[in-house]
Amino acid sequence: MQQPAKAHLMDATAMDRALTRIAHEIVERNRGIEKLYLVGIQRRGVPLAERIADRIARIEGERPGVGILDITFYRDDLSLLNQNPVVNATEISCAIYDYIIVLVDDVIYTGRTVRAAIEAIFDMGRPARIQLAVMIDRGHRELPLRPDFVGKNVPTSRSEQIEVSVVEIDGFDSVDLYDREEYVTVHGGVEGGVR
Predict the structure, then answer these.
(1) Could you tell me the fold of the domain covering 12-156?
(2) Helix (H/G/I), strand (E/B), else coil: 8
(3) pTM, full prediction
């Protein structure tokens, strides 16, 4: 039985507003969408990237491409994961060279996922720029990385856990805060927090 959240931070409406704002900010920062390509980091970054692309299409009349990135083998903690880590698809359909790549993820925490994603992108080519869009910035960075576009800043303690749920994977949209110990006990992992 799932423990109740310590705090409900965002509902579907708040998430929708945040994604719409992020889409506008991406278009404004890049003066349009020429050579713009969104890359969702597996897993929940993928549907968030698709939604941002849909909103950009409503603004610009044209939808930017969306790719999928799995960073499993770029993680610096791979040896600490399951002996048989789950590897998801990577699908990048543009020639990275000279493109503006916007990495999209659900939560930024330590910055290690973003570092791994940047390394993976550079293994595919040299983009003009890499930007980062996240639904939640929870602080506690271990690397000098900062997102360009943020849905919500949520100061947390290291004993807390952020869970971003998306309808495409979880059946509903929500951002919730849990006590980390209870979250790990119930969910058996830390997918939404060690990033």
Answers:
(1) Rossmann fold (3.40.50)
(2) strand
(3) 0.89
